[in-house]
Amino acid sequence: MEKRLREIIERRAAIREELEKRDEKLDLDAVKKELEDLEAEEKEIRARQELANNIAVGGGEPIKKPEENRSGEPAADDPLDSMEYRKAFMEYVTKGTDMPKEFRANTLTSDAGVAIPTTTLNKVIDKLEATGMILPRVTRTAYKGGLRIPTSTVKPVASWVGEGQTSTKQKKTTGFIEFAYYKLRCAVSVSLETDTMALSAFEAALVNNIAQAMVKGIEQAIISGSGSGQPTGIITATVPEDQEVEVATFDYKTLQSIEDAIPVAYENGGVYVMSKKTFGKFAGMVDNNKQPIARVNYGLNNPTERTLLGRPVICCDYLPSYDAAEAGAVFAFVFRMEDYVLNTNYNITMKQYEDNETDDIVRKAIMLVDGKVVDNGSLVLLKKPAGN
Question: What are the pLDDT digits (tens) for 29-38?
């Protein structure tokens, strides 16, 4: 019945728009007849509803359906948000029907018309943050603590030998990269006094916020983690001296020097990682014909594709822009992201408890994680000159 009532109201509004257009082809008699039929149908539906609500069972109190707000929770003791008041307000606006006497006291001033019903939007507006660009690109493992990955910096060399001669025996030496346990924790509390009307909105928002916070914490550590109490970041890894490039100017020669620093064996799969403002400096470069060097392809149905000399660019908020970076600091890098291993020993688990001292409801997420660069061959660090 509620659905049909909404359809009747919408149809009345549509008829009103047609009448305001003063369409000469409109049959006024037919419109009048339709309005009369709609009004009669509405009165019948409302009469049925009133009768159903007043039916008593076994001489007891009439059966009343609990009022609910938009979140599905019982309505608060706010008369302006009751279902009866909202229906009366709709009648007042659409038909000019006087408000019932019991609702007139809700108007605080004598010159006010009718108070608008109280509603709470079931949504929490959050500041948007860019996350999730780094985590999907690294190598993920889920081994129990103490994971050790063998590494070797020596490869055997083949040699040409004559007939009856032998080659020198070469030893293969290996080392290990060991992963430890680092706990990542995020806890958020909501006071008990939080409006119950918005509680479902807060709960949904909190779960989303905690998940984003965990992802942001992991990605930040992947990029710049110190390795003490947290994973070791990419930009803190040790690389050969010829794989560090100081960028003093943004031109084609600088781009080529970066490419030259990437060993031939690691050319495939490497990507640039930098802030969006830093990429803007590269994207602003033009050649002698004023054509952009850093091509940015805008597809009709796809997002912007950022590349530098054909190599993909990932923009993130975990690195400072070139202008904001300190002298001698790393502001960007080139790296084959799968050469970073992130081991999550204890995956994200959500828990909820009540703080007995404050009566706050606390939701927390915990995981054990560690990460390291297992092969720095593709890593090229871009640094701001020490004098700048």
Answer: 887 888 888 8
Q: Residue 67: what pLDDT?
A: 45
User: Quick one: 135-383 is in which CATH superfamily?
Assistant: Major capsid protein gp5 (3.30.2400.10)
Do 323 and 259 contact (CB within 8 A), yes or no?
Answer: no
C-alpha distances in angstroms, 72 versus 69, 82, 148, 199, 289? 6, 13, 51, 10, 63
What's the CA gap between 192 and 104, in Å, rounded? 32
| Poorest-pLDDT segment among 4-8, 53-57, 135-139, 355-359 | 53-57
Which own/partner contact pairs does 7-15 have at CB distance under 8 Å and 24+ positions apart?
8/38, 8/41, 8/42, 9/90, 9/94, 11/38, 12/38, 12/94
Q: Would you put residue 164 in left (φ > 0), alpha (ψ -120 to 50) or beta?
A: left
Order of strands, edge to edge, in the sheet holding 330-335? 244-246, 380-383, 330-335, 271-274, 311-315, 305-308, 296-297
CA dist 70 and 87 (Å) reads 15
Give Cα separations from 374 to 139, 179, 271, 275 (angstroms).
10, 11, 17, 24
Domain segments of the chain as ranges: 2-104, 135-383
pLDDT digits (tens, 9 = 90+) for 186-235: 887 766 555 444 556 666 676 777 778 888 899 999 999 998 889 999 99
